[in-house]
């Protein structure tokens, strides 16, 4: 499915590397293989290990067929004299441990010692990757956070029974998100095959759950938990297929090992991946609920405001100052009682549930206004209001395979976890938009912004697209004081 793309990510390899050792001392200790210890990613290509492995594969097809453990068993037998080298995740005790030091079989392989050792290390570490990601996909954090009946109503102020439908939509983005977190387990070293394998492993789980009985309890925590558990099973399947010499997602193990992707992989930081995945999944879910309400981001002018277009809420739970520009997270709360005062137009406030993110069951999740705004801004800068699940998948894959970012390290702040519509109001400063001094407003029962023109990027079309994306098409409140049609 995915071409294996050259990794240019050496510079982004995990900071934890094997302890350097004097190769001379090691050589003395372990025989010929010792001189190849302390291997690095580039060594794989430098010494044409891929070509060597391809030719080994062709020559030893019969050996693989004969060994009930397939590739790993055959390679273990050939390289270490260990036909039980299974590298399977099936609860059996025969593992994937390496026994290279002073190994008489390996040390007698002459010019094949080096590539055989590189393959052994890579296979063993790929196995550790799958094991690590599986254990990182623990459901504990998700359960605590989301197995609450009140989940949907915390982040969605339902006037109707919409929330049930919405929760179904929540699922749309979750497969991609889970796979982002999974690929993040390998950080920048994993390469294209590992990413697309993770996408398949996690993404497969969406369809079977599409008809889960949301109506019963809107128990999103339970549903996410199932996705996660099924993902663990998929990672196990992926591992076992690859180790057996079979294809997973149309690629065999050689694609996963290419360019030395796993040759010095230091292992999965389980806690970090768990935290990251939990924040990403919760973030994706909250985003879906926010995207169905009048939740939006405005800003782009100076931090501290005072530029003639009003002022946003000034406490750090409501805005961020990024590269000298202030960005505010808003929710336009509609009035819920009959009123003839100006309160009939509603008011701006913090989005539903945001203040609870630092409390109780959510307190262990790394998610606050800074993540929401960063993630949304980055998505907006890439695709405007059109950032879809497909965009997210393509961008994440691009980041991982080309090494320009390590998505997992961003957690919920990763581009596209949130896609709250953004309006850059900086162009309004020098404009003649009527009542522009009320474009930005602080939160409060008496705060009602007034938008009487092309407030977003000084562009009528962009403003209309923003209004629509923020579910405010046909909403009269922001234009109630405009003398003439503001154009949206
Ligand atoms: C595979 O097994 C068959 C039958 O036991 C045997 O004749 C053959 O030599 C084996 N091939 C290899 C490469 O081990
Ligand atoms: C949000 O989280 C980030 C990263 O964990 C942290 O640096 C920042 O201080 C937090 N901001 C708020 C307002 O809590
Ligand atoms: C948001 O982006 C700013 C600027 O790039 C960065 O300093 C901040 O740490 C980011 N916040 C989070 C939660 O990642
Ligand atoms: C988003 O989609 C709309 C309509 O399909 C299009 O006019 C607009 O140019 C797109 N924006 C971006 C940034 O791709």
Multimerization state: single chain
Report the structural category: mainly alpha
* Proportion of beta-strand residues: 5-15%
Helix content estimate: 40-55%
How many structural domains can be distinguished in the coordinates? 2
N-to-C terminal Cα separation, in Å? 43 Å
Topology:
Layout: H1 23-30, H2 41-46, H3 49-59, H4 61-66, H5 70-80, H6 104-107, H7 113-136, H8 140-146, H9 151-155, H10 162-170, H11 174-184, H12 191-203, H13 214-217, H14 220-243, H15 253-257, H16 270-290, E1 295-302, E2 319-322, E3 325-333, E4 347-349, H17 369-383, H18 389-402, H19 407-410, E5 422-424, H20 460-469
Helix pairs in contact: 5-7, 7-14, 7-16, 8-14, 8-16, 10-16, 11-12, 11-16, 11-18, 12-14, 12-18
One 2-acetamido-2-deoxy-beta-D-glucopyranose is lined by residues 322, 370-371, 374, 413.
